[in-house]
Amino acid sequence: MKRPCIPAGGAVLALLAFQAAGPAKAATAGDVVRHYADIAHAGYGDSLALARELGAAIDSLLASPSQETLDQARQAWIVAREPYQQTEVYRFGNLAVDEWEGRVNAWPLDEGLIDYVADLYGEESELNAFYTANVIANPQLSIGGREIDASEITPDLIRSLHEIDEVEANVSTGYHAIEFLLWGQDLNGTDAGAGERPWTDFATGDNCTGGNCDRRGAYLEAASTLLVADLEEMTASWGEGGAARSDLLGRSPEEGLSVILTGMGSLSYGEQAGERMQLGLMLHDPEEEHDCFSDNTHNSHYFDALGIRNVYLGRYVRPDGSEVSGPGLAGLVAAHDPELDKEMQAKLEATMAAMETLKETAEGGMAYDQMIGSGNDEGNAIVQAAIDGLVDQTRSIERIVSALGLERIEFEGSDSLDNPQAVFQ
Questions:
Q1: For residue 265, with 0-12 CB atoms within 10 Å meaning exposed, 13-18 middle and 19 or more buried, which class applies?
Q2: Cα gap 423→178, rounded to integer Å
Q3: pLDDT computed for residue 122 by the predictor
Q4: Closest CA to 248 of 25, 26, 38
């Protein structure tokens, strides 16, 4: 099936403070777990604040459609991704996060469910009856014997369509649904260029292109409303008395450490190194990139990796440059095995250096989907170096589990790393 598909400088500059800081103090396991929850609360809170700013930019676009207001909404989306990607390390191990995450960050999506698509997308999918439902163009849907009243596009309607028929590619809400509506399909393959949706797709009257501009605006507004609501829920869940915090702190400190390391290892290895990077590189397939419509994938990878380091060090740099700092795993590991802590910190720095190269390359004109293209030896090598760093640091995370005397943890895997031949079968 077809899925054709800048950050703000303050957070990046603030990383200098990260790199200059001394080693973390030794702390109890309970201290580390509680501060982990504090960083989660801050990260989701920052994601919420920037999602609200994105919503305001979307309101401006819809009130006064123009290239300028569309560009402003796109930039607000890119900035909003920075703190959110740093929270992805909380997904694995925390059931409350993992069950919720699909509403806000599910990908890839069959965009034909939402809006018009190019002819090369294909007219149908054997696996998905809603493949080209095009809710924006169709006030009434009759699919697979099911009648759906879509005459009014509301948050409740698009929520009801999310993963409809239990098809994971039916993504109707979250960051990537908004991304698709702001950029449109990226039809460039592994050539230069992102999506090129015209601002007139949100215009009124005779200036409207793509048809149904009022309904497209209503969908974008509904998706933005839901994103804010979902982030409000998760921010509260990590606050005092919230469900996610209470679940974590209700466990033994050792179980809490296992949750933290499960998130670090699973994101580092199977999810990011494997499913998000190695798979796309092996297939040279731009449909496997994470932020495929906007060509923002380099930032998603960078800030995912940064989130892993945040948790280990116990430090998170907020969008305004301030820090949330306290007991991290680093101090606990150093108290048990100083050399292992040095090893882990060195590997985290090596991964971030590789991610910085990837990021700088993309911002210099070679987008991530170009880097993974067949025959691009330079780009392939840059991506592979970042993958190798993630895999290597996972080996040290495994050693930390043992050093802290925790029960064996099974990290998320990926055929692209564990059984590469299966990818091509």
A1: buried
A2: 30
A3: 85
A4: 38
Rg of the chain (C-alpha set): 21
Residue of 246, 229, 223 whose CA lies nearest to 73? 223
Residue located via tokens 């201290």: 31
Mean pLDDT by 10 residues, the chain (425 residues): 39 43 66 98 98 98 98 98 98 94 93 92 87 95 88 97 93 97 93 94 95 98 98 98 97 97 97 96 90 95 98 98 97 96 98 98 97 97 98 98 94 93 84
| Tokens standing for residue 302 | 């960078």
Give CA 50 to chain center in angstroms: 15
341-368 burial, b at 16+ Cβ within 10 Å, e below that, comes to bebbbebbebbbebbeebbebbeeebbb
User: How many helices and strands in the chain, by DSSP H and E?
Assistant: 17, 4
ω into residue 65 within 30 of 0, thus cis? no
Structure tokens at 213: 């501009």
The distance of Cα 342 from the centroid of its chain, to the nearest Å, equals 29
| 135, two tokens | 């809710």
Tokens of 45: 């809170």
Distances (CA, A) of 95 to 91, 281, 336: 7, 30, 29
Question: Which value, to the nearest 10 degrees, does the dihedral of the CA atoms of residues 201, 207, 212, 218 take?
Answer: 60
Residue length, the chain? 425
CA atoms within 13 A on the CB side of 126: 0
Nearest to 117 by CA among 130, 103, 104: 130
Q: How far is CA 103 from CA 29, 163, 218, in A?
A: 32, 9, 19
- What pLDDT, on a 0 to 100 scale, did the predictor assign at position 3? 39
Placement of tokens 């409000």 in the chain? 232
Please tell me the pTM assigned to this model: 0.92
* Other C-beta atoms lying within 10 Å of the C-beta of residue 297: 25
